[in-house]
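User: Quick sanity check before I run a bigger batch. Here is a single chain. Can you write out its predicted 3D structure?
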Amino acid sequence: KPPSLALQPAITPELVHGRVHLKCSYSRPSAEPPLQYLVAWSRLSTPGKKEQIQRDTTLQSFSYVEMNGRNLRLGDTVFCTVTAFSRDTPEQQSIPEESKGFYAGIKFLPESLQIAEDGKEHVLTILSTVPIACPGQDDSCKITLRLSTEDLGKNSQLPGPPDIALSACQVDLLRAPCSESSCAAAAVTVTAVTDFARDGNRVSRIQAEPVGRRDLLWRAYTPKDVKVTVRDLPTGNCYSFTDPHIITFDGWRYDNYKIGTFLLCRSVSRAFEVHVRQWDCGSHRSATACNCGVAAR
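Assistant: Done. Predicted structure follows.
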């Protein structure tokens, strides 16, 4: 029966001579003679199916693979599988041990958002799980991402204007020491657009596109988008019309025939109020005032 050696392989990202590599590290049990290790690298080509991209035989407790943009690209989930054997008895191998999948690329945290039309800001963190290389002396060590939003509509409705607003149209991911699966990070805030329309819950998406990079690794890469579900909140309406009749938010009706400038509406929870100016629009026989101006803050 093949032995289990608890090699515990794990993948970490590294820059080697200015190029992005993944390193598979594993514990090396003491043995005489020293053990050799067969390291097989694979990527998730389709859900549930892995494609082998490289095999190494080494005496070291690690193995590297380069992310070259061809057989290993950004957006791939990568695995390494390690098997140990003795040079004297290569046919006697340990049980193969596989690492956890390492996602190489841009991640959004959280991966999806559920927000409401209440004006609150929600923080969306954008991070790179691989280090940012400096392709040339003229380039700073950063990735610039252009952000865009798109409304995906509701059920069978046609998409309309985006239901969300971002605090920035682009962000820079500046190179930093890799820690806790992040080698560069930035943050934006997402707010639901209060549209005063009863249009139901709608789904929008946020897309990020790398811009200005000349190297193949980033130029051919489009990160996964983020789905944002905006929960519709009920809205209220109030009216002032003709000479003027007034209907309040809660349905009360009354008239105001006075001439002057009046406070029509004021919010007690935010900086919002509406003033209305009424002026004489009647005849000699009847004094009537009509709306002739409005100011809103």
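The two ends are 79 Å apart (CA to CA).

User: Great, the batch can go ahead then.
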